[in-house]
Amino acid sequence: MTLSALILAGGRGRRLGNMEKALMNCDGRSLLERTINILDDIVDEVLVSVRDEEQEKEFEAYACGKQMVRDSYSDIGPLAGILEGFRAAKGKYIFVTACDMPFIDPKVVEFMFRCAEDHDAAVPLRLDGSMEPLCGVYRVEPMLPLIEMSIASGKRFILAPVFELDDVVGVEMEKIREIDPELKTFININTFDDMDKLDICQDG
Ligand SMILES: Nc1nc2c(ncn2[C@@H]2O[C@H](COP(=O)(O)OP(=O)(O)OP(=O)(O)O)[C@@H](O)[C@H]2O)c(=O)[nH]1
């Protein structure tokens, strides 16, 4: 079965003074390259979601030759990138993540694919029971029209199409903790404070 992964990287990093988060540096590599390398061993295809042509050009040196998909809706947020990723995907299932989650555990990704098998999606459940969509695996066929409908009806939050799926497996954090004890997979970088704590620096 063909599997895909989508790395969302089209955000503007406003909480970081409009820094390109995908190009931030961790251990000598950009966050984008790190995530591509992790996913490349697991899936048949890695897609990089960018907001526009200018960003695509800037990312060319860091995208490891992977296909980049540009938003066709501007400034509506991550769902615009998810839409184009799902339109371009060759896989039956797609893992969706963000460029600012540099410590994804590959075993967690594999586990999420296994959980999604024969279902519409597998999405991690936070301790409060809410879903964490940016570490989820989705079956492309039912999701794509639901993403289109969500955007058309002005529902731009990532979970809007997920709520409409018939068969979503919620994956308890405790199950993921058995694989990734510190839940590093879910660390994401939004602020200068996060960068300091995690020893991440601005590219260049
Ligand atoms: N393609 C695409 N990706 C987006 C867009 N907005 C956010 N993303 C991505 O979605 C993920 C989550 O984004 P956020 O952390 O909420 O937003 P951000 O733009 O990265 O940061 P802030 O501007 O500080 O909120 C990140 O990987 C972003 O790169 C968008 O309009 N298009």
From TrEMBL:
Q: Per the annotation, which location comes first and is thus the protein's main one?
A: cytoplasm
Look up the signal peptide feature and give its range: none
Record: residues binding GTP: L8, A9, G10, K21, D71, D100
Q: Which GO terms describe its cellular component?
A: cytoplasm
Query: From the UniProt record, which GO molecular function terms apply?
Result: GTP binding; metal ion binding; molybdenum cofactor guanylyltransferase activity
Looking up PANTHER family in the UniProt record yields: MOLYBDENUM COFACTOR GUANYLYLTRANSFERASE
Write the protein's name.
Answer: Probable molybdenum cofactor guanylyltransferase
**Natural source organism:** Methanococcoides methylutens MM1
